[in-house]
Write a structure and sequence with these properties.
The complex is a heterodimer. In chain A, 60% of the residues lie in helices and 1% in strands. By secondary structure, chain A is mostly helical. In chain A, the strands form two sheets. In chain A, strands 1-4 form a two-stranded parallel sheet. Chain A has a two-stranded antiparallel sheet with strand order 2-3. In chain A, strand 2 and strand 3 form a beta hairpin. Chain A is globular. The two termini of chain A are 45 Å apart. The relative contact order of chain A is 0.10. By secondary structure, chain B is of the alpha+beta class. In chain B, strands 3-2-1-5-8 form a five-stranded mixed sheet, with no helix packed on it. In chain B, a hairpin with a 4-residue loop joins strand 6 and strand 7. In chain B, helix 6 runs antiparallel to helix 7, helix 8 runs antiparallel to helix 11 and helix 9 runs antiparallel to helix 10. Chain B is extended, with a radius of gyration of 35 Å. The N and C termini of chain B lie far apart (79 Å). The chains are: A mainly alpha, B alpha+beta. Chains A and B meet through helix 3, helix 4, strand 2, strand 3 and helix 8 of A and helix 3, helix 4, helix 5, helix 6 and helix 7 of B. The complex binds protoporphyrin IX containing FE (HEM) and copper (II) ion (2 copies). One copper (II) ion (CU) binds next to loops of chain B.
């Protein structure tokens, strides 16, 4: 389970033969490790801890939303002055929502997801001994760690943590007296985010360089597993967009503490009077923020899509359908994601013409997303599907991607957004397409690569139960929120019982909260399974999922440098599953073939025999799947 | 307990006994796993574990008990519990007159709810253990009890059916509230048709793709001897499903463009509509009508004062603001000079409070002392002086330059009417001119499909035409119905309660209502009723200023 530096094997290892080897100290091995596998575990465990905290926060504020007029003794014992009389204080409610969003978006689904799997898989799947700069990689983790500590420390501040939403829009966040959370709490939030950006940049540069420069022999770009493509593009997105957030954050710090007016103008604040700031624009912050913010949602989503692509191919025992289409759609999503940020700002009063432009580009981005969905479906078609927990979470991701993606078509439409903006419809949308989908990608990755990380297997049955409970509860929590939003319920409201119109949603709110608790309880299953399996799981076999990718050729016991002896060379793409010319239904990338073709192109004749419906045309294949469905034709 | 129930119980007990008897291997394994689990944990962790468990249970029980005690005590103290307790599924209003049983039932229901939650959590842990053990047993006995792949495949199908039924149910039951019924505005009708088109299209795609996803998962689950089809790509197919979504989306976006235009270009040059200013502040709204002259007077945040809440450029008010500001600067200056003295007297106060054992006073005085000692008080006062000086400078520069002066002080503001409700005329185009005093707010009128952010320092506007009066809406939705304008951009503590009532009426009704409202600065007739706005405002004002005065007193001591 641990990163074992070479003890017995190192003599065989040519690269390391020249210099002295000794067991590194505990600190070098487990704490300030430069080994990508250990760093990946550090990211994962920190991410899981942050995820638990984020989830607990959501449960706390869900209690408030479900029973706004009741008081709960335990809340007061838990939160002290922030829940006097057993009822969460409105400021603290906003703080919880803010930190929940921040943690989930940045700490769990950016660092926890990319940090874990980019670190684990990039060197192992492209065939490198480690990251290009292991030291920077270590720094990346520790900046992330410091950032988490700073963020969480804001709970110890007297005025509470940042509470202007995870977007921390000024002037609310810029004026220290605008609400309690805008005091020291927001300063800490900003410091935390700046540390976080440093971490993301250090990591991102490393990922890009490693993928581009350190691929093993034969690993051409078009043989990269889709995970690596996704991580590469994610890192590019991060590298290009996080600096903009850094700038936005620094300006905000200046405005808050040094009297500048980047975002402030014409303000009269209660209890202070007319402020001196003039000439700034709060909308400028929004432009800067969403210039990161929109790529950020793809920074979250792309790794999840990459992971599921590999997991689905492996477990459906089929090549991913349309590898190049998948890469091209990833690429075009990545490029387009930089020019659609304005769809978060349709009603900020920007020029209506600009709104039109952002509407067009936003709906264009839906096309590659649709392509990905259809390709996933086509991959499942006529597969031989093994329902490992990883596979089920991947299927769950596709389901969420569809549900959440479709509501994006409403929100990307400037006209429709006039009504839907900042309503619960938005909450439903992003929780499905970004929250649940990416979390499911992460779970999928954890279940799939757990044997690689810890040398042991997780329990499949528990994993299945975890999946079904989580899947059902996620839909139960987020699906009804669409209808609340459509009926005019605004988000970021502390209490709905003051407005009679919202009375009809009280029962729904209770249902959502109870479902959220169910989902929370299901995560206990996961935690139990995860931590127990680290120590007591069934020992893993070399290639437990009979996968093609390179990481499964590395020894189960972690080696510094990943492979004893030479790094294996690569002879084919990652998806040669179920080739008709082979008995085994997989064909690892590094396996030396016996003169088989790199990609198997079934001759037209034989293909017909394999795909009985694929008589003549592609369109027919597509529609024949409907035929199975509705006419129950025998396949 | 009747006979058949007893029999049932007996049956269950016998079943369990037999189960255990037949499965003593299972029981053995269970014991073995548990004991090995325990033996692995050293005594300390074991104790911590136990302690945490016990503490958790006690804590939970205590919170339940304390709750019931609370209610009990309230009754003893002569308060009725009903004023605190509210119905379980809270309705719109606080029910003061609920019968006593309701409160008791609520408490019970709350307890039941929490116990249920705890139960679910424990159940899941138990299941977790059981499965872990069954897996172990399966390994030991070398048998796989069930083919999990088959089970999951069927759950996929069940999930699809249940999920789609639930979706249909949601559409039917919650969907009927979607968009709050028909739009009450002109562009709202276009909006609704755009929405419906999108809804229909996305629903079709949703159903088809979800069916395909789960059906494929079910249909192509692993079978012995089955090999997947090697089918890596098909360019024609991929082009096909790139082009189809592209076409559909193009149609949608073209239509969306049209709808967008109908919303944002309703009155481009601003000639067709009446202007009303919507003024937002932490935490409330005001509307400003132009009054008899039909022109909204100039307003500026620099002119905001206690009596001139919207900062209208009404010269007498501005002049008195200047006087106020100068006085405030002076008193700030004095406070600054007196800081050492204040510190002395605070220390004396602290001693006095200490002698009297007044903890509260001690801590508040200590806080103040700290504020002075660390220089915060000084910085605050300096900043305040700087701010006010700057404000004075800016006001002076406006008044100095005749050209600028003329653009500000137009006298158009005198008859402007500031209200706390928004009354609009049916079938008449209206343009809201938004202005925020402090934070970004967002004015959302969901029934009218209208929303626009209200940004400090940046004027925004929104034009639309209401088409349904409040009366008509009440006829459709019940007598309690009201239109509201909500704040829909997080703006601070009371964001959730920042709304303004909106009334749609005929022209005559609106005119009549406006007559009852007091113009802002019209030379007043002899006897006037002070408008509600200012009554409320001055109330909060005095509260604020009294606070300030005590502060100042402290500072000056
Ligand atoms: C445990 C399951 C979760 C529940 C019950 C939950 C629930 C909620 C709720 C009720 C809100 C407040 C919405 C509002 O008033 O605006 C919220 C906000 C948010 N959640 Fe979650 N959520 C969960 C998981 C996630 C995940 C996995 C993500 C990852 C993307 C996420 C990201 C966010 C964000 C970004 C916000 C917005 C915060 C803000 O308004 O500033 N949540 N969540
Ligand atoms: Cu976006
Ligand atoms: Cu607000």
């Amino acid at each position: 389970m641990s990163t074992e530096t070479l003890t017995a094997t190192h003599t065989h290892q040519d690269e390391h033969a020249h210099h002295e080897h000794h067991e590194p100290s505990f600190i070098r091995k487990y704490v300030f490790s430069t080994d990508h596998k250990m760093i990946s575990k550090q990211f994962l465990i920190t991410g899981i801890i942050m995820g638990c905290l984020g989830m607990l926060m959501s449960l706390l504020f869900r209690i408030q939303l479900a029973w706004p007029d009741e008081s709960f003794g335990f809340l007061e014992s838990l939160l002290g002055k922030w829940a006097k009389g057993g009822k969460i204080d409105p400021n603290y409610y906003m703080a919880l929502v803010t930190i929940h969003g921040t943690i989930m978006v940045f700490y769990v689904l950016t660092a926890g997801l990319s940090g874990t799997f980019s670190n684990l898989l990039i060197p192992l799947q492209v065939g490198a001994r480690d990251m290009a700069s292991p030291f920077m990689n270590m720094l990346s983790y520790w900046f992330f760690f410091a950032s988490s500590v700073v963020l969480l420390s804001s709970f110890a501040v007297e005025t509470g943590p940042a509470s202007s939403g995870w977007t921390v829009y000024p002037p609310l966040s810029a004026l220290q007296k605008a609400m309690p959370g805008s005091g020291l709490g927001t300063t800490l939030w900003l410091v935390a985010i700046i540390l976080f950006i440093v971490s993301a940049l250090l990591g991102g540069i490393n990922y890009i360089v490693t993928v581009l420069n350190m691929r093993t022999k034969g690993m051409s770009m078009n043989r990269l597993p889709l995970t690596i493509w996704a991580f590469l593009l994610t890192a590019c997105l991060g590298l290009l967009s996080f600096p903009v957030l850094l700038g936005a954050g620094l300006f905000l710090i200046f405005d808050r503490s040094f009297g500048t007016s980047f975002y402030l103008s014409d303000i009269y604040l209660n209890g202070i009077g007319a402020m001196t700031n003039s000439g700034g624009s709060p909308i400028m912050y929004q432009h800067l923020f969403w210039f990161l913010g929109h790529p950020e949602v793809y920074i979250i989503l792309l790794p999840a899509l990459g992971i599921t692509s590999e997991v689905i191919a492996t477990n459906a025992r089929k090549p991913i359908f349309g590898y190049s289409a998948m890469v091209i759609s990833l690429l075009s999503i990545a490029v387009l994601s930089f020019i659609v940020w304005g769809h978060h700002m349709f009603i900020t009063g920007m020029n209506p013409f600009l709104g039109t432009v952002f509407m067009y580009v936003t709906l264009i981005i839906a096309v590659p997303s649709a392509v990905k969905t259809f390709n996933y479906l086509a991959t499942l078609w006529k597969g031989n599907i093994r329902f490992t927990p990883a596979m089920m979470f991947a299927i769950g991701l596709v389901s969420f991607f569809i549900s959440g993606g479709l509501t994006g078509i409403y929100l990307g439409n400037a006209a429709l957004d006039v009504q839907l903006h900042d309503s619960y419809f938005v909450v439903a949308h992003f929780h499905l397409v970004m929250g649940s989908a990416a979390i499911f990608g992460m779970f999928s990755g954890i279940y799939h690569w757990f044997p690689k990380m810890f040398g042991r297997m997780m329990n499949n049955t528990l994993g299945s139960i975890h999946f079904w409970l989580t899947f059902a509860s996620a839909y139960m929590v987020f699906f009804p929120m669409h209808f609340m939003g459509l009926a005019g319920v605004p988000r970021r409201y502390y209490q709905f019982s003051l407005i009679p119109e919202f009375g009809i949603w009280m029962n729904v709110n209770i249902f959502i909260t109870v479902s959220a608790f169910l989902g929370g309880a299901a995560q206990l299953l996961f935690l139990y399974n995860f931590f127990r399996s680290i120590f007591k799981g069934k020992p893993a076999t070399q290639n437990p999922w009979e996968s093609n990718t390179l990481e499964w050729s590395a020894p189960i016991k972690h080696l510094h440098g990943n492979w004893p002896g030479d790094i294996p060379a690569v002879y084919r793409g990652p998806h040669e599953y179920s080739r008709p010319d082979r008995d085994l239904d997989y064909f690892p990338q590094h396996e030396v073939g016996n003169g088989e073709p790199v990609h198997y192109e079934a001759p037209a004749e034989t293909q017909k025999t394999y795909a009985s419906d694929n008589k003549d045309s592609a369109t027919k294949v597509f529609f024949s799947s409907f035929a199975h469905l509705f006419l129950l034709k025998k396949a | 307990m009747n006979c058949s129930k007893l029999q049932q119980c007996r049956k269950i007990v016998i079943f369990f006994l037999q189960f255990i008897k037949n499965n003593n291997k299972f029981a053995h394994d269970l014991k073995k796993t548990i004991s090995s689990f325990y033996s692995r944990m050293n005594t300390i962790t074991k104790n911590i574990f136990k302690l945490a468990l016990v503490a958790g249970i006690i804590f939970f029980a205590a919170s339940l008990i304390s709750k019931s005690v609370d209610i009990h005590q309230l009754k003893v103290d002569g308060y009725s519990a009903e004023t605190i307790e509210k119905p379980l599924f809270g309705t719109d209003e606080i029910v003061y007159e609920a019968p006593k049983e309701v409160a008791a039932n609520d408490a019970v229901a709350t307890r039941v709810k929490w116990s249920l939650l705890l139960f679910v959590i424990i159940l899941i842990m138990v299941i977790a253990n059981a499965f872990d053990i069954s897996a172990l047993t399966a390994k030991l006995t070398g048998k796989q009890a069930i083919n999990s792949n088959n089970v999951n495949k069927w759950i996929m199908l069940i999930f699809l059916v249940v999920g789609l039924s639930a979706t249909a149910w949601e559409y039917a039951v919650h969907g009927k509230h979607a968009l709050l019924g028909n739009a009450s505005s002109e562009h709202g009708a276009i909006y609704d048709s755009m929405f419906n088109i999108t809804l229909i299209l996305t629903t079709i795609v949703f159903v088809i793709t979800q069916i395909l996803l789960f059906y494929f998962s079910f249909r192509y689950a692993k079978k012995d001897g089955q090999k997947a089809l090697y089918y890596a790509h098909n360019n024609r197919l991929e082009v096909f499903w790139t082009i189809i979504p592209a076409i559909v989306l193009t149609l949608l976006v073209l239509r969306g463009h049209q709808t967008w235009r109908s919303i944002v270009y309703a009155d481009v040059d601003g000639t067709k509509s009446t202007n009303i200013e919507i003024f937002a502040f932490q935490f409330g709204w005001n509307a400003r009508y132009a009054g008899d002259d039909g022109i909204l007077g100039v307003a500026d945040y620099k002119f905001i004062s206690g009596k001139n809440k919207l900062g209208l450029a009404y010269e007498p008010e501005v002049d008195s603001l200047v006087v106020e500001l100068k006085a405030a600067i002076l008193s700030d200056q004095q406070a600054l000079d007196n800081l050492p003295k204040t510190l002395e007297s605070l220390k004396a106060d602290w001693q006095a409070a200490k002698d009297m054992q007044d903890q509260e006073a001690m801590s508040s005085i200590k806080k103040e002392i700290e504020e002075i000692n660390c220089g915060d008080r000084k910085d605050d006062l300096n900043a305040s002086i700087k701010r006010k000086t700057k404000q004075l400078e800016r006001i002076a520069s406006i008044k100095k330059d005749p050209a600028v002066y003329a653009t500000y002080f137009t006298k158009a503001e005198e008859d402007d009417i500031v209200t706390q409700e928004l009354h609009l005329v049916k079938n008449k185009l209206v343009t809201f001119k938004f202005r925020s005093r402090d934070i970004i707010h967002s004015a959302w009128l969901p029934h009218f499909r209208a929303q626009m952010n209200v940004v400090p320092g940046m004027p925004t506007r929104f034009t639309f035409m209401p088409t349904k009066t409040t009366k008509e809406a009440k006829a459709e939705n019940g007598p309690d119905f009201e239109y509201y304008l909500y704040c829909n951009k997080i703006c601070g503590t009371s964001h959730y309660n920042m709304k303004m009532k909106v009334v749609i009426e005929s022209q005559e009704e609106v005119d009549a209502w406006l007559k009852t409202q007091q113009p802002a600065f019209k030379p007043m007739p002899a006897v006037i009723a002070v408008p509600a706005v200012y009554l409320k405002d001055s109330a909060t004002m005095t509260k604020d200023s009294s606070k300030n005065i005590t502060k100042k007193k402290l500072a000056l001591r």
